[in-house]
Specification:
Number of helices: 8
Radius of gyration: 23 Å
Strand order of the largest sheet: 10-9-14-6-7-13-11
Order of helices and strands: EEHEHEHEHEEEEEEEEEHEHEHEHE
Shape: globular
Number of strands: 18
Largest sheet: 7 strands, antiparallel
Helix content: 25-40%
Structural class: alpha/beta
Strand content: 25-35%
Mean pLDDT: 85
Low-confidence stretches: none
């Protein structure tokens, strides 16, 4: 269960290994490896400039490794192979390189162009070499920041915070995002009320490649969508109206009931999850369940704790309430007990 179930963004300072030069900063996007999180992984790759393909030296190429290779190739981004757990019993570096070659990934000592760094995260071996390699690839690719306005970027996660309302993690890709900016993503127009860096420190401006936590949204912005800064309310409205036809993030309601289903039994469900990407992963997992005799209908879904309103919805439609990594409000518990509504709460996606 110690698996990453969210997309996170962090920054690491890389000191110059030689005497000259300034410290450089690398932003890392950490994406979950479990198969239900395919969409998050491909989103991570779309946003990134460079990918690091982590392969365990004792396990070699797994199905999710193949999928990650496919995503990297589709997005055409340069990448580095990090061979982890080289100090573990059963580690076989040559076998991994051979298996990668089978997947058409030729590392440098196999006559290819893909750099490979052998590391042990646990023993902190060669991590510096990996970071230096990232900077080297960035230099070869001539990656430069673009400070021209207006600022824009991408929303990588959103959730509901009891204290602060809707919160989004975004990555600035161009320009400088400032406090008070009007920000549009999809059809949602927000105003940057506060910003925090990945350590939770309040900041007044965010530059390209900086992950930032933004408050000031009226509803949860869709993840994976771009955000832009508008100069005034009129412009913000215009941009939002143009985005009306963008495909919705979840199609929970579509496809769960098909024609010819008259004899099927249906399970009605109310879903609540901690963050938007969890809902997306749940939807992907649900779609994979195929049955002739039973189907499901998602009556409502949202992020945040299970509330009394959710239980009332469940009573009206004879639903089960399913929560993923969320709390259950006391009043909701009492009402559910009284009305015989089943609430299930899970912490790990494959449960």
């Amino acid at each position: 269960g110690g698996i990453t179930q969210h997309i996170g963004a962090y920054q690491a300072e890389v000191g110059p290994s030689t005497g000259s030069g300034l410290k450089k900063v690398i932003t890392f996007l950490d994406t979950p490896g479990h198969e239900a999180f395919t969409a998050i992984r491909s989103r991570g790759a779309k946003v990134a400039d460079i990918a690091i393909l982590v392969v365990a030296a004792d396990e070699s190429v797994k199905p999710q490794t193949k999928e990650a290779i496919r995503i990297i190739k589709e997005e055409k981004i340069p990448f580095i192979v990090a061979l982890n757990k080289i100090d573990k019993e059963g580690a076989n570096v040559q076998k991994v390189k051979q298996d990668l070659a089978t997947e058409d990934v030729l590392v440098e000592d196999w006559g290819g162009k893909v750099p490979v760094v052998e590391i042990s995260a646990k023993a902190n071996r060669n991590i510096d070499a990996l970071l230096d390699m990232v900077l080297l690839v960035a230099e070869l690719e001539e990656l430069k920041e673009d400070l021209s306005s207006p600022a824009q970027g991408i929303v990588i996660e959103s959730n509901l915070d009891k204290r602060r309302g809707y919160v989004a993690t975004a990555l600035v890709q161009k320009g400088i995002l400032n406090l008070g900016d009007l920000i549009v993503t999809g059809t949602v127009v927000g105003k940057v009320k506060s910003m925090e860096d990945f350590m939770g420190k309040a900041i007044a401006g965010a530059k390209p490649s900086q992950p930032v936590l933004i408050t000031g949204w009226p509803t949860a912005p869709d993840i994976g969508k771009e955000f832009v800064v508008a100069s005034d309310k009129d412009e913000a409205t215009r941009i939002a109206e143009k985005n009306v036809n963008l495909a919705p993030l979840f199609s929970f309601f579509k496809g769960s009931v098909e024609t010819g289903d008259e004899n099927k039994k249906f399970l009605n469900l109310v879903f609540k999850s901690d963050v938007s990407s969890s809902l997306e992963a749940i939807e992907a997992s649900l779609k994979a369940i195929k049955s002739v005799e039973v189907g499901y209908r998602v009556i409502s879904y949202d992020i945040g704790n299970i509330s009394e309103a959710d239980v009332k919805t469940a009573i009206a439609s004879k639903c089960q309430v399913v929560g993923f990594r969320v709390g259950i409000e006391e009043s909701a518990k009492k009402l559910a007990e009284k009305e015989g509504i089943k609430i299930s709460n899970f912490e790990i996606i494959y449960e």
